[in-house]
Amino acid sequence: xxxxxxxxxxxxxxxxxxxxxxxxxxxxxxxxxxxxxxxxxxxxxxxxxxxxxxxxxxxxxxxxxxxxxxxxxxxxxxxxxxxxxxxxxxxxxxxxxxxxxxxxxxxxxxxxxxxxxxxxxxxxxxxxxxxxxxxxxxxxxxxxxxxxxxxxxxxxxxxxxxxxxxxxxxxxxxxxxxxxxxxxxxxxxxxxxxxxxxxxxxxxxxxxxxxxxxxxxxxxxxxxxxxxxxxxxxxxxxxxxxxxxxxxxxxxxxxxxxxxxxxxxxxxxxxxxxxxxxxxxxxxxxxxxxxxxxxxxxxxxxxxxxxxxxxxxxxxxxxxxxxxxxxxxxxxxxxxxxxxxxxxxxxxxxxxxxxxxxxxxxxxxxxxxxxxxxxxxxxxxxxxxxxxxxxxxxxxxxxxxxxxxxxxxxxxxxxxxxx
Length: 419
Known about the structure:
By secondary structure, the chain is an alpha/beta fold. It folds into 3 domains: about 25-225, NADH-ubiquinone oxidoreductase 51kDa subunit (Rossmann fold, 3-Layer(aba) Sandwich); about 235-315, Ubiquitin-like (UB roll), CATH 3.10.20; about 320-415, Up-down Bundle (de novo design (two linked rop proteins)), CATH 1.20.1440. The chain is about 40% helix and about 15% strand. It has helices at about 30-40, 50-60, 70-80, 105-110, 115-125, 140-150, 170-180, 210-220, 220-225, 260-265, 320-335, 340-355, 365-375, 385-400, 400-405, and strands spanning about 15-20, 90-95, 130-140, 160-165, 205, 235-240, 250-255, 275-280, 285, 295, 305, 310-315. The strands form 3 sheets. Strands 1-7-6-12-8-9 form a 6-stranded mixed beta sheet, sandwiched between helices. Strands 4-3-2-5 form a 4-stranded parallel beta sheet, sandwiched between helices. It starts with 16 loop residues before the first strand and ends in a 13-residue tail after the last helix.
């Protein structure tokens, strides 16, 4: 069950907010003609192997959550081919899975700018001398994507695969497994997809927003890309914003290193009315608004990693402990059930945190939650346990006063008063 059922994605066809209109510069639904009028054609020669050097100069990092340097990830796949690990040409997969309940930026991008995603997929595949291309997207995005593929020259070899609406369906190895077997379950972390991915071929899985950024960099260059954002976090990024004010979620395009309070303000929220913000999604962390910057790199005291581009504000009338307990219960239910940490550890953690949320006065609960977190961390078959324990750890820090109140049988209500 969705922990925040009142958070709805933007209405179909609703315009996203363009604070930094790059990815979202074209009118929604403009089609190929509008795409070319806005961005111009993509030079087919720009996607030679030199594209990877341009991506390195740009500083582009992945927009799917992990924030790996895009050039480095692509180079690892190219290196596998050069070393002759496999004779087969590499596979490139555009990952548009968005099982995170608070995320809808990729669905918006696929609806508003599918041709940028296709351009990026074609460019990266050409740079790697790849053979097979896939667009892995949820069912709601398939009709629009297929229309765009029919319009787009050079897109004939791109295959569309439906991504299940589950939390772990977008994990890279789960993407490969789904395309290969129809089961969106993560594979063993020891297996390097860059060396042995889909059908044993070197495989590159790239988030759809990252590929759209590649399409812009291929057109306008690394220096242009760096004109937005900061030195540590160049360019723009899409964020899904939700909270007490928007009746529906909003998708904003913001510069790298944007202040969290400014993003909330652009979404129509008063930062002073927000008790905490969940940044990065359910595998992200809770933070106070303060002077935090959205950036994957920088001083830890001022920076919060945007992760999957989710920003969910919590109103002062909502209990952060109860909200986190609901999320943890959801995450425990979304595990692949392939390893002990997921099958047993996460449900046990959820049970303890729910007891704290219910104002159980047992003084041993906090120590037990800490013990379980240490048992789970670093031992999963995928990163789901680690991401979940990271969220819980941030909640215990940010909502420390609330936790202490709950353990005495009280809840800190609106305005910070004990209820």
